[in-house]
Specification:
226 residues; alpha/beta; 9 strands; disordered C terminus; binds guanosine-5'-diphosphate; binds adenosine-5'-diphosphate; Adenylate_kinase_lid-dom; transferase; AK3/Ak4_mitochondrial; nucleotide-binding; GTP binding
């Protein structure tokens, strides 16, 4: 008889706070599947799916995708993950999304990256991404080995349409208005853990220690036997 202990975590923070970068480190250090709402949307845009075509202009303008569309998309992806522990990045971004997630899953912990807006702005205009994997680079912080190419596949990197200074400003506004209330929502449930700083390499060891403690304590959902 094997008892499977599932861990369900969310990573939050304003655009450019390092969610993707830290999620990648978490994924490598702990056995968690990483699901990024932004990566899923960009894959839909690239594949020209109905959702991708409908949502492209909304995303390019720095607005949030409507809650019902986003929630359906993410819950379907989570169902596909089945009996795996996961880390959700970029969802929920509104209280309605958080409530819809809560209806189906018990969230064990929410890691919030509290990085000042001034730090973020210059990071995003020098962000380069590998679309199909979601790997992120930065021309100063973690440049690719060969400029413009992904380290693993050698495929071209792109700059996101929504990483222009004007759109970043709109995304930060959307974050303040729509996403910050989600932090209060999780704080009131007692699952919010805040990590403040301006450098990922200084924040990461604290996140690592925290998650190691959480996972070792077994203080999370035991889903039964398989
Ligand atoms: N200068 C600098 N750039 C960073 C740091 N951490 C992450 N980045 C870069 O900042 C950009 C945003 O990080 P990302 O993980 O994509 O943030 P997300 O939007 O919250 O998922 C990327 O280009 C990263 O490579 C850091 O500590 N310093
Ligand atoms: N949970 C969500 N709800 C609504 N829109 C979303 C959600 N996740 C992603 N998006 C859309 O995709 C864009 C890019 O998201 P993401 O890649 O997570 O950006 P970042 O991490 O830089 O904030 C958002 O600006 C928004 O338009």
């Amino acid at each position: 008889m094997v008892v499977r202990v599932l861990f369900r975590a969310v990573i939050m923070g304003p655009p450019g706070s390092g969610k993707g970068t830290i999620s990648d480190r978490i994924r490598k250090s702990f056995e968690l599947k990483h699901l990024s709402s932004g990566d899923i949307l960009r894959a839909n845009i690239k594949a020209k799916t109905e959702i991708g075509l409908l949502m492209k202009s909304c995303i390019d303008q720095g607005q949030l995708v409507p809650d019902d569309i986003m929630t359906r998309l993410i819950l379907a992806e989570l169902r596909n993950l089945g009996q795996n522990s996961w880390l959700l990045d970029g969802f929920p971004r509104t209280v309605r999304q958080a409530e819809a997630l809560d209806d189906v899953y018990n969230i064990d912990t929410v890691v919030n990256l509290n990085v000042p807006f001034e730090t973020i702005k210059e990071r995003l205009t020098s962000r380069w991404v590998h679309l199909s994997s979601g790997r992120v680079y930065n021309t100063t912080f973690n440049p690719p080995k060969i400029p413009g190419l992904d380290d693993i596949t050698g495929e071209p990197l792109i700059q996101r349409n929504d990483d222009t200074p004007e759109t970043v400003t709109k995304r930060l506004k959307a974050y303040e208005m729509q996403t910050q209330p989600v932090l209060e929502y999780y704080r009131s449930k007692g699952v919010l853990e805040v990590f403040s700083g301006t450098e990922t390499n200084k924040i990461w060891p604290h996140v690592h220690t925290f998650l190691s403690g959480k996972l070792a304590s077994g203080n999370h959902q035991v889903t039964g036997t398989v």
